[in-house]
Amino acid sequence: MTDRFFNVYTCRIHADFLISVTQKLCVCVCVLLFRFSYFSYTSSWYSDVFVCRPTVDEKHHVQMDLLFPTGTACKQPSVSSSRPDVATTSQWLAPNVWEDTFDLKVIDAIYKQQNITVATTVFALGKYVRFLKDLLESAEQHFMVGYRVHYYIFTDLPDEVPAVTLGEGRQLKVIKTASMNRWQEISLRRMEMIENLIQYELINKVDYIFSLDVDSKFYAHWGAESLGDLVGVLHAWFFGKSREQFTYERRPESQAYIPLDEGDYYYGGAVIGGRPEKVLKLVKTCRMQLDVDRANKIEAVWQEESHLNNYFLYNKPTKLLSPEYLWDDQKGKPSFMKVVRFSQVVKNYAEIRPNP
After folding, report:
1. CA neighbours within 13 Å on the CB side: how many for 213?
2. Pairing state of beta strands 117-123 and 148-155?
3. pLDDT for 175-204, tens place per residue?
4. Closest CA to 108 of 71, 140, 57, 82
5. What number of other Cβ atoms are within 10 A of residue 223's Cβ?
6. Rounded Cα–Cα distance for residues 151 and 174 (Å)
7. Gap between the Cα atoms of 164 and 143, Å rounded
């Protein structure tokens, strides 16, 4: 009887021990799964959505410093719009970036840990090379400051590229390009040259790419809040207008054709951005459509910009940049424009273009 009681008691002890160990293992597995799922979720979405680090009770502290360094703080997200005067999302829920719609400290806390590199292409052919100095010097003051930036300057006048002091982690490469007799041809060839650059030099080497017009200048901060998979900028001259007023290509014979009753926004061709693989698909598609148009002896009304708008109609950008990121020095500053970050400068087209 005593042996039997002892065996039963021993079994209970072993059972309690096994239950305790099992419970602890389950807790450990749950914590590990939570950490893995949290990291996987945020790593797939934080390029377009910015989340503040939650306050964690010390007794239940889970290390999240890979994404949010200790000390990073921001206001609690709210459902109310911080900019009731403008639309801050598109109909397909792509963020539309305006002043007061992002927390720069939180964004930098996310992206600076990733040690990203941003490639930036600029085309400066013929007399347009004169705009390079202002563009580059203003970029060093305002564009992606604190991040690695590699400038790629396409020009037929490499000896006239100005010497500009670059910040730490920033580089400049000059790419000799053939001269062109028509400014339209410069516009038409740009997609092809970006395609070749990404495909043969940048793919798997940089994290993001922007193509910027040379006849422009930075006036204020332009940083990581602009990053996304595929980025389009809203054209200053067509912002707030109806689609019927957009200067889309309206001839069905062109590959850039958009009917009068279609279209979301009018996007400026002076800024194209995103992840290299997404931008590669964009420029390759536009280049192929341009080739078809050339074979059919038709040229879209605004060359590559027309094809860009056609592409964005059927391949929606994942992030929109407001006209703050592509203004025009000829325009006044309306009340909804709290800041001008990047703007096209006033110029005499008849003097700088090789043809009318």
Report:
1. 20
2. parallel
3. 999 887 665 666 678 899 999 999 999 999
4. 71
5. 18
6. 8
7. 14
